[in-house]
Amino acid sequence: MQSLKKFNQFLFFSLRRFLSLSFILGSMIFMVRIYEFFIVSSLYHYPLGSFVNLLIGLKFDLILYLRLSAIMMLPYLIIAFFSPKAGKIFFMVFSLLFVFGDMMLLQYFATARVPLGADLLGYSLSEISHTVKVSGEFDFSPFIMIALYFALMIRIFIKHIYYRIKPWGMAILTFFMLASFLPLRQLQQQPSNYNDEFSMFLATNKLNFFAESVVNHYLNQGKLNDRKYTFKTNVVSSSKNPFNYVDTEYPFLHEESTPDILGPYFELGETPPNIVLIIVESLGRAYSGKNAYLGSFTPFLDSLMENSLYWENCLSTSGRTFEVLPSTLASVPFGDHGFAELGDKMPDHISLISLLKKQANYYSSFVYGGEAEFDNMAAFLHRQGVDKIIDRPEFDNNYTTLPANSGGFTWGFGDREIFRRYLEELNSNQTGSRMDVLLTVAMHEPFNIPDQDYYTRLFQERMGKLNLDNKTISFNNQYSKPFSTILYFDKSIQYFFNEVRKNPSFANTIFIITGDHRMPETPISTQIDRFHVPLIVYSPMLKKAEKFSSVVTH
């Protein structure tokens, strides 16, 4: 009986110490939000009106504090049973680690404009290192402030005097800590409460977002593969199910019955047409094409749309570049981290490149200003049987890379140089029918381009020509550097079409132009906005131009 009484006393006093220490954790998380209020928002030029959403975020910081405390409660009590000092050290170390993670995720969000989630798991360490090196100027000042902040927090932990919390206060606080994990609507963010996606992300606690994303990833991983499905075969075609399935062993196998929708738009000759697929880094509908809500900064591309088949509501299948080749060329499923990430384990599949090569003896190439090994692009393309990959090592001294950041890193060669390199290859390699894929790089952090001052002036001139309201003008002016790279791309593709018209193959070529995703560095209005890209099919063989408003995807 005496031992039970001692244990209850230990539990009471240890829990009181724990709750007292947890106030320091809560204040640390609160200080991170204050740091974002007054430092990060200014350094990284958050849009006007961000303060209100940052203030709303205090609610989600409170939820994070309660959840982290609940997670550490039992380990602390166990350790404190043997050594109260060791329990305090445990709490201090893990609190500092959690808050450090929160601050690092905040720095990522400030640069990328989207919070980091389970998508991190889709990148190798070398890819992460490469992205960090080339994605902007490295600024030590935030890290100096973080170091000073942590030194202060460690001192507070060491000098901390425990509060004599009343039993009823301990009970209430413990209850809320445990209740913070309940699946209540009030504990979750509701997108309908915000004007746009960026506003919601501002309020989001970045560590909580990352943790939930990773947990959901692992909880849902493989669930689709674990399910058993039964399919009917030899289904009679109807408006609801137009496919005629042919084999129970292959439940998705059906007779090919796709109608030729685009053929009537073209005056095709006897020779199979060349196909050039131009994938533009970060080309979003938010700033390209008629009715772009930020205004269109692609005047030449807009003029090309007027003479093309143009889909104004095309959606990419990923918010990052790694999925664009598998989607546009092969229509293969995403997988856990992207199809190309499977590497040697990629299952057998067909693609536009492999079909054209096998059935019509097409020559194929891929031109990219960076390293084709990035995101496993080279591995994927080799699986398709691509004949030639022209990436950064294949550019000689006649070509100039994009300006490097302060660390001396650059993505590689700019859009104009990519087009120029392709034209060199096209003029020197007059094969039969060919399928060529070009992927640009310039519209990407750190947004360093040749003649930066010229394109910044061009951006201001373009702003003057667009009929934009004052709010949009103010917003765009905060991102003059990203917008200037859009104009750089537009000038580059104008140069490309001026030059490619001189090649004899031009008259028998179909050009397809689309974006891999929208630029995330300028705040995104809605979740779908990140995937909203233009799709343009241009050719001298087109009988007429037409705009389509129906939704299509890569």
Largest sheet: 9 strands, mixed
The percent range for helix content is 40-55%
**Number of E-type strands:** 9
Number of helix segments?
17
Q: What is the first-to-last residue Cα distance? A: 71 Å
Global geometry: elongated
**Series of secondary-structure elements, N-terminal to C-terminal:** HHHHHHHHHEHEHHEHEHEHHHEEEE
CA radius of gyration: 28 Å
Question: Strand content of the residues, in percent?
Answer: 5-15%
List the helices and strands and how they pair.
Elements: H1 2-43, H2 50-82, H3 84-112, H4 125-134, H5 141-159, H6 167-179, H7 197-203, H8 206-220, H9 223-226, E1 274-280, H10 299-305, E2 309-315, H11 324-330, H12 352-360, E3 363-368, H13 377-384, E4 388-390, H14 415-428, E5 434-439, H15 452-465, H16 470-477, H17 480-500, E6 509-515, E7 532-538, E8 546-548, E9 552-553
Parallel strand pairs: 1-5, 1-6, 2-8, 2-9, 3-4, 3-5
Antiparallel strand pairs: 2-7, 6-7
Helix pairs in contact: 1-2, 1-3, 1-5, 2-3, 2-6, 2-7, 3-5, 3-8, 14-17, 15-17
Structure overview:
The protein is an alpha/beta fold. It has 17 helices and nine strands. Strands 1, 2, 3, 4, 5, 6, 7, 8 and 9 form a nine-stranded mixed sheet that branches. The radius of gyration is 28 Å and the shape is elongated. The termini are far apart. The model is unreliable at 224-238 (pLDDT under 50).
Features:
single chain, alpha/beta, nine-stranded mixed sheet, 9 strands
Please give a quick description of this structure.
The chain has 554 residues and is an alpha/beta fold. It is built from 17 helices and 9 strands. Strands 1, 2, 3, 4, 5, 6, 7, 8 and 9 form a 9-stranded mixed sheet that branches.
